[in-house]
Amino acid sequence: MNDVATTPNELAGATASADKAEHSTQHPIRIYLWIWLLLFVFSTFSYMVDYFKVQGMLRWTLIITFMLLKAGFIVAIFMHMAWERLALKLAILLPPLCLLILVGLMAAEGDYTFLMRLASFAH
Amino acid sequence: MDDLVIDTKGHTPSLEGLRGAAADWAKDKEAFPVPWGKVMMWIFLLSDTFVFSCFLTSYMNVRISTTVPWPNVSDTFSLNVGHSRIPLLLIAIMTMILITSSGTMAMAVNYGYRRHRANTTALMLITAAFGACFVGMQSFEWSKLIIEEGVRPWGSPLGAPQFGASFFMITGFHGLHVSVGVIYLVVVAMRVWTGFYDRKGSYETVEIAGLYWHFVDLVWVFIFAFFYLW
Fold first, then answer.
1. Does A33 share its domain with A11?
2. Among A27, A88, A106, beta carbon nearest to B34
3. In b/e form, how buried is each residue of B59-93, taking b as 16+ CB within 10 angstroms?
């Protein structure tokens, strides 16, 4: 790569990258309206799960499915992650996966504490 | 100005996928071919993700381990419409308001890239107004819980004492984010209106503010699912 960029080159580079930025961020308003509508629909669905008092595994499956769909659309479309390069996607989206381990550990710990409390304090 | 640096640093857009990711990281150059402000915002949001996840995980932990029944969340956050009591209505309205604000923000960013000053400003101010509305409803919710129900961070007459601690911590921290976001949006909207970004030659700041705002909405998606629908 030639690091010595003369002014015209830099200007050309700037124009090119500006064009690229314009290209990657110029989407028709339509796509945002569609995602917006979808978010409304998913929110209404998850509210309905509570309203109609769906219980048990079905409740959890539905709630978490709608939650992940909403989160996915917000990050991918509203936050433009779908149009970023993979290097940025990996840097931002991989680290939170560690949290799944924390959640697993804390769920196990919570169960253990619950059983200890039952064993020690219940009369 | 930021744009000047990118392509002279040897960014190779031709490589895509994993090979592209490896090339972006491996070469002696900027790893992320986007303005630094955007990367910094993403990294801040990543750290914020960890903060909120710690709150939600500890909430999960205390909720699993308590032997006292958890209050009925659906009833606690209901609203009376006419003579009927509609469960969780307040939270449903707050959710819709926040989603609406996210939609207007996405459109503000879009108009920003078209350099449409008036529309960008207007949509950002509308977004901020929805945000302020959300905070208003949240303070209504808080005062109802504190004054009428007597819920405290250290105890709750409705059931498990951990309810108060989790509720005030999680929704309080989220509400703080929304409040800060409202101020942030108004400041950026004013700068759009006065033509600051036209002189600067880049509307990236609008997109960066948008990232923050969508993140606030994103966090609410998880709070809504885990705190209010569990």
1. yes
2. A88
3. bbbbbbbbeeebbebbebbbeeeeeeeebbbbbbe
Q: How close A51 gets to chain B, by Cα (Å)?
A: 7
Residue A119 structural domain = 85-123
Closest CA to A36 of A61, A73, A69: A73
- Distance, in Å, from the CA atom of A105 to the CA atom of A100, rounded to the nearest integer, reads 9
Q: Is A41 an interface residue toward B (CB < 8 Å)? A: no
Do A64 and A113 share a domain, yes or no? no
Q: Do A10 and B4 touch (CB under 8 A)?
A: yes
One domain for residues A89 and A68? no
Identify the residue with better confidence: A26 or B34. Answer: B34
Nearest residue of chain A to residue B218 (CA atoms): A71
Domain boundaries, chain B: 1-33, 35-228
C-beta separation of A84 from B112 below 8 A? no
| Nearest chain A Cα distance for residue B16, angstroms | 8
pLDDT in tens, A70-118: 999 999 999 999 999 999 999 999 999 999 999 999 999 999 999 999 9
A103 and A121 fall within a common domain: yes
My answer on whether A79 and A104 are in the same domain is no
- A23–chain B Cβ distance below 8 A for any pair: no
Domain count, chain A: 2
Digit-coded pLDDT (tens) for B112-156: 999 999 999 999 999 999 999 999 999 999 999 999 888 999 888
Alpha helices by DSSP H, B17-35: 17-26
| CATH placement of domain B35-228 | 1.20.120.80
ipTM over 0.90: no
Residues on chain A touching B60 (C-beta within 8 angstroms): 103, 106-107, 110
